[in-house]
Write a structure and sequence with these properties.
Elements (H helix, E strand, L loop, with lengths): L13 E4 L9 H28 L6 H30 L3 E3 H34 L4 H4 L2 H19 L1 H7 L8 E2 L6 H5 L7 H35 L5 H31 L7 H10 L2 H13 L1 H13 L1
Parallel strand pairs: 1-3
Antiparallel strand pairs: 1-2
Helix pairs in contact: 1-2, 1-11, 1-12, 2-3, 2-5, 2-11, 3-5, 3-6, 3-8, 3-9, 8-9, 9-10, 9-11, 11-12
Amino acid sequence: MTSPSNYTTAPVSEFLLICFPNYQSWQHWLSLPLSLLFLLAMGANITLLITIRLEASLHEPMYYLLSLLSLLDIVLCLTVIPKVLAIFWFDLRSISFSACFLQMFIMNCFLAMESCTFMVMAYDRYVAICHPLRYPSIITDQFVARANMFIVARNAMFFLPVPILSSQLRYCAENIIRNCICTNLSVSKLSCDDITFNQLYQLVTAWTLLGSDLILIVLSYSFILKAVLRIKAEGAAAKALSTCGSHFILILFFSTVLLVLVITNLARKRIPPDVPILLNILHHLIPPALNPIVYGVRTKEIKQGILKLLRRL
């Protein structure tokens, strides 16, 4: 492995990604579980997308939203993990300016799009349980189409300035990013300019959008829980909650990994610097790998659709 000290600080025309600066000797070993998780994430999400596409009984709004979530997971995995594995296996550390800022935009935008998708899915479950008779008239294919447009437009509009602001900074000499991916903080702190506004914009935007999504998700499940507790029929409450179980588990995966990542970044001085780097990578792997599996295991219709797909092969 090439150590960071061997790189020169020539005029910046590209960036060099230095994964785990303190533990480069075991990067090859780490690549094995990451490769398996990557293959699992890609295979599971592609299988889920094909199943929903081919199985007519799954052509419903709830499964369309799940398809969107799988698409977002696939794009996030392809944006981050192949480059990380190329660094581990072939020492291909260089990344062009345009590729770095494109990766930065996709990571920020698509993670926020996932959060927004979870919020729309929570509203779907709220209507299904609290207003079951009105569900077919409220959650329609047109609703899903409008929701998809809102998810894409909102997050693209608010997160496009993040890489633009970062790309407009002056990078005088230092081009070594001590990370596996082009995060805004890792890149912008290499600049010789003041990056206060850059950091403040991302912080305010991320917390505003993700925070509002989380608040709406909590409100939706509060109303759902309140409605379920009113159900008198035996077993009806458990059945109603089971329809939300898979969605709640997915939110838990997404939120827990994100929360741990935020906490470790805030406590950066108290923990090894390689820990946040590893958690950032795992955040792009663990939820994408587990999301389709959870729905496949817990949802009878999807399980039956996957079995039909396997019989065709």
